[in-house]
Structure formats: C-alpha cells, structure tokens
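From the shared-data thread, chain only:
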Amino acid sequence: MIVWLQFQPSEYLWKPSMTIARSDRISTDPAEILAYMEQQADLFDRAKPQIVEAYLNQYVWFENGQVLDSDPSHEDLVLRIYGAGEPRPLFVRKVRAVERYLSKC
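Structure, as tokens:
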C-alpha cells in the first residue's frame, strides 16, 4: 500500500504540488523525510527558471538538482516511478510559472 502525504515542509501548510510517497515496506524517519523534502524544494527553487522553460504544466520527479522524469499526469508519473522499483520518498511537483499556496484560514 502506498501512502500519500502532501505538505509544504518548511511551514507545515498543505500544498498540493508537493508529494511524499512512501511504501509501508520501508520504515522512514519523519525528520529525515522533512529534511529531504526541504533540501529538494530549495534545489528545485534554484533550478526553477530552467525547469519552467522545459517542463511547464508537467509534473516532474526532481532529485538533487535534476529532473529525473516528467509527465502531464501526476498519477502516471508516480506509478511509473514505483513500477521501476523506487519505493522511497519522492519529490514530485507540478511545474508552474507562478506557485499557488494554500494557507491557514
């Protein structure tokens, strides 16, 4: 079973464009997941100008400064990644020219 958690790690606000996917077969420390997501978000933000040019309106699997895969469909991308044997936390984000954030009411 795959569990989907969506959040903006640094502010603990829900943000639909950030995804962690985790398999129940793997025990992952929440602090490690948070650190990973914050690191990837920072690297993504730095690389965003180049990413927007090539992947606008697509979902990207991003890790350590590189886009590893992309697809217009979030579901297709994640299923393809897990089908390739990647049962671990993932940084998947939809590439937008302007980010949309949800905040507490």
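The chain has one domain: 2-94.
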